[in-house]
Amino acid sequence: VRRFRLVIEYDGTDFAGFQIQNQGERTIQGVLEETIERLSGQFSRVHGAGRTDAGVHATGQVVHFDSTWQVPAEKVAVALNAVLPIDLTVRTGGVAEATFHARHDAIRRTYVYTILNREMPSALRGRYVWQVHPPLSRERMQSAANHLIGTHDFATFGLPDAPGKSTVRRMDAIEITPQADCLRIRVAGSAFLKHQVRAFVGTLVEVGRGKLPPDAVKTILESKDRTQCPKVAPPQGLCLVKVEYSEKRNEDLFGKTE
Amino acid sequence: VRRFRLVIEYDGTDFAGFQIQNQGERTIQGVLEETIERLSGQFSRVHGAGRTDAGVHATGQVVHFDSTWQVPAEKVAVALNAVLPIDLTVRTGGVAEATFHARHDAIRRTYVYTILNREMPSALRGRYVWQVHPPLSRERMQSAANHLIGTHDFATFGLPDAPGKSTVRRMDAIEITPQADCLRIRVAGSAFLKHQVRAFVGTLVEVGRGKLPPDAVKTILESKDRTQCPKVAPPQGLCLVKVEYSEKRNEDLFGKTE
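^ Those are the sequences you sent over. The predicted structure of the assembly is below.
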């Protein structure tokens, strides 16, 4: 048995999220497991670094699975891409150490949220942005975002994996960058609660359009009360772009077959 | 009766091209005409600057139509966007002079074709690129493209609107630019034959991967024989980005309500 690892990309529009939940729903995990079973002849459970919600995209999701599949390590990605649907592709694939775990070993995740900040919608970007009509102040949003950096209890902004578990997370960076008629919000942190990035973005947009002062975010954070979260942004603007591991694990992931 | 003009954007994936052809097919023209009729209460024929093929996208297509619709000129775009599907949107709209014609008055069209030049497909860009695996030489492709600039009979590369009509067109620029793992081919010219840009791109890719010498393109052009066209690129990489009019008409189009 070898432990395989993949970096995958997906357009989340037509998926009910990463994780298998209800029978009959199309999920990233489900499509990957079916494809791997079809190619290897055996069922393998797929584990992902981040459980993205329905409609959320990824360019750098990391997964692992165990299999006795006799494919050469450097051919895993090409073999899977030949069978996977067009909206779920493998960027790189290979064999990891037997102890590698895509989720437990991840030390940092980076998400990017894209806001189309103009009056008119965009046919070509509609699947990948949240269109916000009123002009947003990047400066006010960045000033508010700075209150969220560091290690805090983020109970206001999301739910833990299971009831009663810790809602403390470490946010390393929240950077808001203008890009033509868009605002790009990059959020990097140790790990994220369910809906956390979308709740950050929803809150920052309320600040950016002048409905909340930037410092209100500090009070909202400290309330640790989900009912105090002003708004949750829709999923289609969100993309999981990178998962990082310790130096040792990064080498394990990226050093051998690429 | 006023003559309305729109700059529109569309994701061509789920359309059978711009022009209404067969009953029951979803076309840009058809969806626009239905939407305008629904809002204005009367049928208006829609005329477009370029008849893009099935699967081809646009960010700068221009159309016009006549109507007694009592909407203020500056509200046309917002009114239509409220009803149009997410993959067809209006960027700007207004009222033109009664003699303006979106197709006949256009003096230049610009298309961009995007090639994803890498081994692995991309789930997020698959709808908008042609994935070409072998590494392409941008230099060879640009050198071949230079033979296509100027006024020539392009019968090798496409069909005229109607049999027997002229296949002479003026190409002002063909620029091939690398952009991360993509090649972006920008083609600007007076007007284009059916399939012309895709035939250019298919031919240039054969040069870029070393199957044809750059100078062979001159011979192929001069043959004026469609069977000499080496390859036609698929539609999804193509996007109509700009339509230009004479200075007088550009003012008419863009000077009044924006």
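Strands of chain A lie at 2-10, 47-48, 57-67, 88-96, 106-116, 130-131, 150-153, 168-179, 182-189, 238-245. The mean pLDDT of chain A is 94.

Shout if you want it in another format.
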